[in-house]
Design brief:
The protein is mainly α. It has 4 helices and no strands.
């Protein structure tokens, strides 16, 4: 059963490393690096907050709507930033894919395992 916990870590780490290292080398200005780091951190925070609320059975419809809105805005800002950055054509698709792989790995990491009960920290 160790492989079930290994796959989310591989997704999370490969996504974050591809995104961070690739965009760090691709963006010449520090402001561009900060922009993409901010998009990654905002997406990861929203995913964490929503998944934690779901795990603790404390989410409501308004909270879910706010999380979805912030996630969509962050993804839109990421796509606009990647589109306007001086990147090669394959990088324009690679970095958003790495972003979503990172978030998917984080969601899988935050899911309770089969032996864990919902509502426990």
């Amino acid at each position: 059963m160790k492989t079930t916990r290994l796959l989310p870590w591989i997704l999370f780490l490969s996504g974050i490393l591809t995104y961070s290292i690739g965009l760090w080398r691709a963006c010449p200005l520090l402001s561009g690096k900060g922009y993409f780091l901010g998009a990654l951190m905002t997406g990861m925070f929203v995913t964490y907050a929503y998944q934690r609320a779901v795990n603790l059975n404390q989410n409501d419809e308004r909270f879910a709507s706010v999380c979805q809105m912030v996630a969509l805005i962050t993804a839109g800002l990421l796509l606009v930033g990647v589109w306007n950055a001086p990147l090669a054509p394959f990088e324009i698709g690679l970095y958003p894919a790495a972003y979503f792989v990172c978030l998917a790995g984080q969601v899988l990491l935050l899911r309770p395992g089969p032996n864990e009960q919902k509502g426990e920290s």
